[in-house]
Amino acid sequence: MRPEAASKRTDAMDKTIRILLLEDDPDDAELLAVALARDGLHCEMHRVATREDFSDALDRGGIDLILSDYVLPSFDGPAALKIAKDKLPNVPFIIISGKVGEETAIETIKDGATDYLLKGCLTRLVPAVRRALNEAEEHTARIEAQEKVTRLGEEAQRKAIELARKVEALKVVSEIDRIILTTLDRDEMLTKAAFQIRRLISADAGGVFLTDAESGSFRYANGWGIGIGSGCTVSQNDFFRLVVESGGAMTRADLVPEQMTAGTDSTLPAAGIRSDLSVPIISKNSAVGVLYLGCRRVAGFSLEDARTAESLANQIGIALENTRLVSDLEDLLVGVVTALVSAIDAKNPWAKGHSERVTECALAIARTMGTPGAEIEKLRLAGLLHDIGKVATYDVILDKPGRFTDRELCLVRKHPDMGCEILSHIKQMRDVLPVIRHHHEHWDGSGYPSGLKGDSIPLLARILCVADSFDSMTADRPHRRAPGITYAVEELMRCSGTQYDPDIVDTFLSMLKCGGWPGMVEAA
């Protein structure tokens, strides 16, 4: 036995032992008290003799040990043992009897008695009491240790779950940060952000609603489970207005279907939404929308959910500001491009509309070929500006009614490089320049300015080449009338594989067979 364990047991014996004695004979009770006191045990004994008194004493508690006679006038030890084990299972129970056989003693031990003593041999009483109390103390210590281990395990599990949630939250926040930095399109950003929110907050429905400053309505940008199509306008939603005015998260713990009649609320009963959480999206100190989350349970959102939603709404606000700035820059760029195209048209009135027509044709080819969206936008700019270099070419040459001389043709063929030189100082045009520079290259390497061949010519430049050639052959020029679509088709087919990429020509001709493309101008 360890010293500290022995010390604890000694301390236990020094304290007053509260004994419940089930005994109908006062003299026998006195003998037991004397025997215990003689060996230095400090006891506080309470004697009862009936089932009712015994049961009442157990209910009151505060008992360290039970001593019971085996036979009583209206009660017996085995019955008392059963009652005691039901009410106070951890309190030691010792039976003391005048005379009972060994088999009976063994049965009582099997039924849960701690020990069995004879009244005529009380020399074993104190050792039996000490042993019973020590075993009870050890048993209690084991139970407490097990409970502590269980509590520690539960606490560890709770902390592990909490840590996992925090890690997941960090992942989601990091992913939204990445989306903010890499996604320039607003609707695409909101779609991705909505998906990330579902990872962090358990919600059956949710979405982002953007405010319309002029009408005061809300436009559903993206989300899930609400039953509204993306881009739909919600003209009435008083609750959203309250959320925007409050500047903080607002919850409705128990939605009553009969009251859900206006705006977004009218769609909630069908979706089974019983509680919701709404947070204003703030950008530059102004509310620009609402982050909405719905749950099919009453009181489905916690205070922690509200804090998390506010954090996510702040990130969305930053992202919306970033996309707005990008959109402003794109609008500025489009304005610059429009001005440059106007300059081209002013330089050559006979070519007015050429750049727009070529662009629409080239975009239709690219879309039919499955070209990615970013490349489509690059092609749009290149198509509008592919002839910008002609502003540096003499008007007398461009407006010449007859054919160009070799010298004049050499000057005209400089316009792709001149265009790149003009645009080289615009950072946003860097990826567009190769398309402009090489839109007159030929599949067989006979084109200009670099004599590139086959796949070494940028794909967008090859597309632009076909579109540019088709429009040139179906539009009037100062020195000739337009040959027309039939001639243009024959020429494209004849030069497929030499001047033009054959795959692009095939795509273009299949488009014509299907009716052309939006904005196509019929030529004679």
User: What is the string of SSEs from the N terminus onward?
Assistant: HEHEHEHEHEHHEEEHEHEEHHHHHHHHHH
What's the number of domains?
Answer: 3
- CATH C-level class of the largest domain is Mainly Alpha
What is the CATH architecture term of the largest domain? Orthogonal Bundle
Biggest beta sheet summary: 6 strands, antiparallel
Uncertain residue ranges: 1-12
Strand content: 5-15%
**Level of helix content?**
40-55%
Output mean pLDDT: 84
Measured between the Cα atoms of the first and last residue, the distance is 112 Å
The CATH superfamily of the largest domain bears the name Hypothetical protein af1432
Report the CATH topology name of the largest domain.
Answer: Hypothetical protein af1432
Report on this structure.
With 524 residues, the chain is of the alpha/beta class. The protein has three domains: 140 residues, Response regulator (Rossmann fold), CATH 3.40.50; 140 residues, GAF domain (Beta-Lactamase, 2-Layer Sandwich); 166 residues, Hypothetical protein af1432 (Orthogonal Bundle), CATH 1.10.3210. It contains 19 helices and eleven strands. Helix 7 packs antiparallel against helix 10, helix 11 runs antiparallel to helix 12 and helix 17 runs antiparallel to helix 18. The longest helix has 58 residues. The radius of gyration is 46 Å and the shape is rod-shaped. The N terminus is likely disordered.
